[in-house]
Design a protein that fits this description.
Elements (H helix, E strand, L loop, with lengths): L19 H39 L6 H4 L6 H10 L6 H11 L15 H36 L4 H15 L2 H15 L11 H31 L2 H8 L4 H38 L5 H10 L3 H29 L1 H5 L2
Helix pairs in contact: 1-12, 5-6, 5-8, 5-10, 5-12, 6-8, 7-8, 7-10, 8-10, 9-10, 10-11, 10-12, 11-12
Amino acid sequence: MTDVTLGPAPSAGAPGGTGPGAAARRGGGGHLVRMVLTRVGTALLVLLCTATVSFFLVRLSGDPVKLLLPPDATAHQEATLRASLGLDRPLITQYLDYLWGLPRFDFGNSLFYNEPVSRVLADRLPATLELAAGAIVVTLGVAVPAGIIAAMRRGRAADRGVMTGVLLGQSTPPFWVGILLILVFAVGLHALPASGYGTFANLVLPSVTLAVYSVAVVARLLRSSLIDVLSSDHIRTARAKGFGPLKIVFVHALRNASLPVITVVGLEVGSLLGGAILTEQVFSWPGVGQLTIEAISNRDFPLVQATVMFFAAVFVVVNLLVDLSYSLLDPRVRTSR
């Protein structure tokens, strides 16, 4: 007989191996792709439902032709205008045309402005993005230091002060904060303008008003997350090695504590854009929020549908990006889904 010597079996970690480690590596990429496709499909379904609900609900507000014509208009004039606007067609036909235009960002023409809705929305969008960006800067600039200080001074005066501010920020309506800021800084001190758009001074009060609630949410979450991380084993080891409190917080603790904060900050971006509706009304800010109120008052169906889809798309896209980034930052989340 001829002896056959068998070589060592390929290990799981070697290239071409067939062990569980190689299978996990091969399946990891496919799992991530499936997860992304699932999230994208869910986001598209949410947008479809939003478009459908907004299309039918907005038509319950009344007939826009009554607002576009003078009170003494005849029935023939109303019928002629309704036909020119395409409102005399069957409702299902209008709905299918609306859905057909969504992938091409074609929302039709505004009934009130008599120009493409996309152009009207694009004219107002920079103001809203500027306001949201200002609010995000205020949120991160105030909430992150406040949360760190509260966690490092847990149970002391600084912590109690931050938590008192958090409680007030979460329980105070934004429109009331805006009115109070106007009374103090515009009417009383004459330091900042009460309304208007175009300068940095005009941006200060609306940004602070819009950011108050987000500052409270982020500061409170960062404090809680940091307190949990600072009580973990690797932080006690760092203290035993003689590391200072600042190095422990910023080098060892803040990274681990920031994962839930990243999620909330991403969600707050969508909330800031949604909350801009009231803030823009208080400060006469010419953004998408104020445009939405005007469109509802004028029964401008295409414009209302476009603004609703804009806010819905912002929420969905931000939530999608936060979900995916959280899965990429924390492998435990990726492997558990």
